[in-house]
Amino acid sequence: xxxxxxxxxxxxxxxxxxxxxxxxxxxxxxxxxxxxxxxxxxxxxxxxxxxxxxxxxxxxxxxxxxxxxxxxxxxxxxxxxxxxxxxxxxxxxxxxxxxxxxxxxxxxxxxxxxxxxxxxxxxxxxxxxxxxxxxxxxxxxxxxxxxxxxxxxxxxxxxxxxxxxxxxxxxxxxxxxxxxxxxxxxxxxxxxxxxxxxxxxxxxxxxxxxxxxxxxxxxxxxxxxxxxxxxxxxxxxxxxxxxxxxxxxxxxxxxxxxxxxxxxxxxxxxxxxxxxxxxxxxxxxxxxxxxxxx
Amino acid sequence: xxxxxxxxxxxxxxxxxxxxxxxxxxxxxxxxxxxxxxxxxxxxxxxxxxxxxxxxxxxxxxxxxxxxxxxxxxxxxxxxxxxxxxxxxxxxxxxxxxxxxxxxxxxxxxxxxxxxxxxxxxxxxxxxxxxxxxx
Lengths: 294, 135
Hints:
The structure holds two protein chains of two kinds.
Chain A (H helix, E strand, L loop, with lengths): L3 E12 L2 E12 L3 E5 L6 H8 L7 E6 L9 H5 L1 E4 L11 H9 L7 H10 L13 H13 L5 E5 L7 H14 L6 E6 L2 H7 L2 E6 L2 E7 H7 L1 E6 L15 E5 L2 E6 L4 H11 L2 E6 L2 H8 L4
Parallel strand pairs in A: 3-7, 3-8, 5-6, 6-7
Antiparallel strand pairs in A: 1-2, 1-4, 8-9, 10-12, 10-13, 11-12
Chain B lengths: L17 H14 L12 H8 L3 H13 L3 E4 L3 E4 L8 H21 L4 H20 L1
Antiparallel strand pairs in B: 1-2
C-alpha cells in the first residue's frame, strides 16, 4: 500500500471574508517530490502553513504524517522539516551556534551531514546571522530543516533568493535527500525550471483548488498543443470538448488539450478536413495554458 | 564508463519527459554502436547524480528499455546492453520503417529537395554512422 505523507480533503481557509483556499485536495505520496505551482497570491503559502499547523484550517480534513496538523505530535515533528518563505532566526547568533542550537532539539540530528552541507554551501560559520547574505540565510535555513534527515520536507519557495550556482547545489542536495525513495518533499515555487529536474509530481493551485495534480511525466505526455489547419474558415464558436483553451484565427485553430489520443486526432482530421499537428509542451507552457482565462 | 553521462544531452525544460530523452539517447547510442552488446550502463544512482535528475526518472527509463528488450538486468551488477535481435520477418521490419520514410520524404519535398537529394541525405547519415562505430 502506498502511504501518503500528506493528504487533504476539501481544505478551506480564508482571511476574513476572502476565501484563499476553497476545497483543496492534495496528496503527497511516500517518496514523491511534489512541486506546488501557482501564481503569486494563489494560496501556496497559506496551504503550506495550514499543513504545518501554523494556520488553522476552517473546513475539510488534513492529515500530515498521520496527524491532524493543528496537533502535530512531538514524534511527528521529529520527522518533519520546514523552510518558510520568511526566515526568522536569532540575528545575534553566530551561524555555527544556530546550527548547534537547532540540533539540540533533535534526538536524530546528523551532525556529520549538517557540517558537510554547511561547508558545501560555503556558510560562514563564525559570522552572525545578521551579517550573512539572503542566499546564505536561505541555505542556512535549509541546513536547519534537513539536518535531522526528515521523512517529509516542506519548502516554501526555497530557491527564491539563491544565485544560479547555489540553486543547483541546493537542488542537488534535495535530490540526495529524496534518493532512497523513503522521503518526500513538498515545495512551492512559481519557477517551473526548479521543478523539472527533481519533481516526480506537480500540483497546480488555481482559484483556491488544486486544478491539476499528476506525475510530471504524465503531465508532459498528456497535455499537448494541437494545431489544426484547414482551407475553410473555422467557426468562431469552434470548441472541442475537454480543451483547456481554444484559439481560432481564420483557417487555423489552436487547442491546448489534456489526454490527446490518436483517435481524437483522426476524428479532428476527418471532421474538419484539416492538417493536424501535435506539439509537446514544457511545464511553463502547460502552466500558462492551465492558467489562461478566456 | 565514467564519461558516459557527458554523451547525454538532457533538456529538463523540454516538452519531452526526461525519462524519454534518456531512452531515446540510449537507443541512439545502441543503434550507432557507441554502446555495444555486453556494455554496462552506469548505475541508476550514478547517472541520476551526474545528470542531476531524480533517481526515479533514470530507473523508469531503464525499466522501459528493459521491457523493450534493449538492455537486461544483471543481478548485482546493473544494466547491460543486450545483443540486438531482430524479431519479425524482413517484410514486417521494413514496413515498420515505411512510416518514417514517408514522413522523411514529405519533409524533404517541403524543403524543395529532389528525389536523389533526399536519398543522398540518407546515404550520408549512414556513412557517418559507419565511421562512428569505428571509433
